[in-house]
Every structure is written in C-alpha cells, then in structure tokens.
Amino acid sequence: MIYKNIAGIKVPSVGTGTWEMGGRNTPDYSKDSHWVNIIQKAISLGMGHIDTAEIYGGGHAEELTGLAIRDFRRNDLFITSKVWHTNLKKSDVLRAAERSLSRLGTGYFDLYLIHFPNPSVPVEETIEAMNFLADQKLTRLIGVSNFEKPLLKKAIRASSYPIAANQIEYGLLSRNKGVYTQNAENEIIPYCRENNISIIAWRPLGKDNFGKLASNPFILSLSKKYQKTPAQIALNWVVSNDNVLTIPKTGSFEHLFDNALSTDFELSKTDRDILNKTFTQ
Predict the structure, then answer these.
(1) Interhelix angle for 32-44 vs 253-260, to 10°?
(2) In the chain, what are the helix, strand and coil shares in percent, each to the nearest 5?
(3) pTM for the structure as a whole
(4) What is the pLDDT of residue 281?
(5) Residue 105: partners with Cβ closer than 8 Å, 6 or more residues away
(6) How far apart are CA 89 and CA 69, in angstroms?
(7) How far apart are CA 75 and CA 279, in angstroms?
(8) How far apart are the first and last CA of the chain?
C-alpha cells in the first residue's frame, strides 16, 4: 500500500468508504455483521483510512465503523466523518460532531469535513465551529467536501487551521464533470495542490458507470499487461496523481483484496498519457 500525507499525517492512499453500509439515509440493520467484517478486513489489508458521515444510514454507518474499529489500535487508524449540510450553523455543527463521536465510540476524528456547502449558512460560521472542534482536540484536522474553488478560497480565509482536504468526485470518468463539482482537474485539484490541500476522491470507479471502464479496450489491454483488474488500473491511475487519495466502497471481500493491491504496481508514463487521452472531458 502506498501512503500519502494529509497535512503531515501518513494515510493509506486507498481507503474504505462506508456509503450505503447500514442503509442509505435511514438505518438498515439486516447486514450489520457483514459490514463490520468488511470494515475489519479492509483495516487488516492496510486500508485503515475509513470514511463515513452522519447522514450515512442515518448515523448507522458510524455505529458500524465504531463496532469494527474496537479491535484495532486507534492510533493505527485514520477516521473521517462529515457534517451534513443541514447542520452547518455553529451550534448545530458542535452537536452533530458530538453525536458522531458518540456513535463512533472514539474521542476524536482524524479528519472532520463539511459534507456539502449550504448557501443559506455563511461558510465563515461553519468554519468557526470547525476551528472550535480543532481547538478542543475533538478533531486532528478539518476540511471540506464538494467545494469548488471560490468557496474553498473563502473557507481558507476564514480558518485559523489549515483546510487539510477537499473530498470530491474524481476518477477517469469524472475528471472535470462530477455530479456536484465541475472542473476538478482543470481548476480544483491544481488550486488544492498549490495550497497543500489533499484531494480525497469519492466514486473513483464511476459506480453505475463502471462498465464503461471495465469494457474499454485500452483498459482491458492494460489489465492484461499488468495482470491487474480494470478496477485496479483505474484506482492506480487516480492515486498516481499528486496529492490525491481515494475511498472506494465495496461490499465484496474479493473487491477489497483488489483495492488493497491496486497500488503495488506503477503505470508507465506512456500508459498514463494514453489513459488521459482516452478519457478526456
């Protein structure tokens, strides 16, 4: 596993997302043992960068994460959670963080993110709350998610602490056209790189559009050349970009092993260049 730094903290470049573990926006308890086992196996495979959020499963994904991490040393993990856009007033952020920490069963986040912007709440007010959490050692780092450059600049100006990360949709199929952000590769990522802000890529494989990657002739040729799956080729491309990490979610143990082995090879510059030309936006 390749590690990268988020504000000086060493983090696995390929982590584990928990969206839809334990339900979408409301709890689903029917597969709890499976999800706990998935998270634990991910950690044992070196993917101890676990990403969750208060909205996932109505908080149940955080509870599952809390159950899964009990058997591991907390210092060996990097736990991220996110505050939902309806909770961005200062007092609401603080209460949301307290609830998330309780569900996780840990005394602090490694990284706490603003999940989505909320135009009705000034980002300065939300950042004030995030700074307070950092002051109180309730989070080691703060950051944002789904922020484009103009709002990101406002967040940086408002914060006493570095904005450590911006979590955005990014992959071969969403280089500049994400669901919630545009111009990731042309604008957001270069700006983040200039300001020492890590990019954490969500949906790196395109989710429902993964078939476009898996059936692409050049991807298939690289899969044969490197003896790797199409998903491993695509994940490797994502994290081979400077300052970019990723958090793919899977419910499959087979895919977990694939994810864990997606950084143990290096795409040649020629192959990267062809991938870049093949999946332009």
Answers:
(1) 20
(2) 45, 20, 35
(3) 0.97
(4) 73
(5) 66, 67, 69, 70
(6) 30
(7) 39
(8) 29
Structural domains in the chain, CATH included, are 3-278 (3.20.20.100)
**Cα–Cα distance between 240 and 227 in angstroms, integer?**
18
Neighbours of 272 (CB within 10 A): 15
Take residue 87 and report the two structure tokens written for it: 């909770």
Question: Which residue, 131, 140, 133, is CA-closest to 74?
Answer: 140
Structure tokens, 223 = 């899969």
CA–CA dist 39, 160 (Å, integer)? 33
In tens, the pLDDT along 151-191 reads 999 999 999 999 999 999 999 999 999 999 999 999 999 99
Q: Which residues of the chain have pLDDT under 70?
A: none
Give the Å distances, CA to CA, from 245 to 33, 37, 97, 130, 164. Answer: 27, 23, 24, 22, 12
